[in-house]
Amino acid sequence: MNQESNSRREFLLTGLAAVGLGAGCSPKKNPFGEYAGNEVKPSGEMVKLLSVDGEVIEMDKAFLKPIPDLPHVSNSEERKGIEGKKFVMVIDLSRCKNVGACKKACNHAHQLNPGQNWIKILEMQEAVTTAPYWEPTTCMHCDEPPCVKVCPVDATFKREDGIVLIDSDRCIGCRFCMAACPYSSRVFNWDEPILEKEVAAQPYSCETSIPQKKGTVSKCDFCPDMARMGELPHCVSACPNGVFAFGDMNEDSVTNGSETWRFSDLIRDKAGYRLMEDLGTKPSVYYLPPVNRNFPFESGLEKDSTGDVIPAK
Hints:
Distance between the termini: 92 Å
Largest sheet: 5 strands, mixed
Order of helices and strands: HEEHEHEEHEEHEHEHHEEEHEEE
Number of helices: 9
Shape: globular
Strand order of the largest sheet: 12-11-10-3-13
Radius of gyration: 29 Å
Helix content: 10-25%
Strand content: 15-25%
Number of strands: 15
Structural class: alpha+beta
């Protein structure tokens, strides 16, 4: 390199340094906006990154800034559903003892306020001369959902995999869907949700239904976030008696986690039925009648300190 080139290079470097100092910038500032003299210190652990120009560069891990957690799938993917699936649930009434583990697991997973149960366990009796039994109820995830038809803002929608969800970012709290639902499966969030700080800071997801929002409607969502991971809904895995079975109608298979059945055989052989079949809503939740019950009805009733039975609520 000749003397003229050296002189020119020194001039450019000196000029750039002067401009930087004149603009109030420190030469110690790194590309991520942290200063070398700050609390952030190099860790010695280098990670490879892809630059905006497509080049692979190395950077000390200590200088990387964390970004907020983002939904693992986009809103459009959440609204589309899982391709090739048709989810279905079977509830075996002969196994239900009103333990309530399904409600507790659901409430915890979805951060529901007290009293906002998406699963209700009802005391049922067909006639005076017949025996009572326990009936867990959820959203029926209908193939012809009346709630979807009345929603004016497309907050309630049906996915390709049969799951009916609510987008709380769109919900305006008109409650038309609650009036249209013949199964009374929806609840309204009248109060500000009681959320952990970490949960409240999360971006809303239709698939997890969290964080809950005041002034919106909510309901059982079939836990599609668990389905994406190949796992069962929280109510299914929490029930100690195998009351709930969940699966894919296209695969003709349902499971409660410990037992697996061919869906079509189970419904046919055990006289499966759907609630309010005459309405034409075509629910995705099927029931098996409470015959040959595993537990007497009375075993599911609460008792006070004296041992007297407390009437079911």
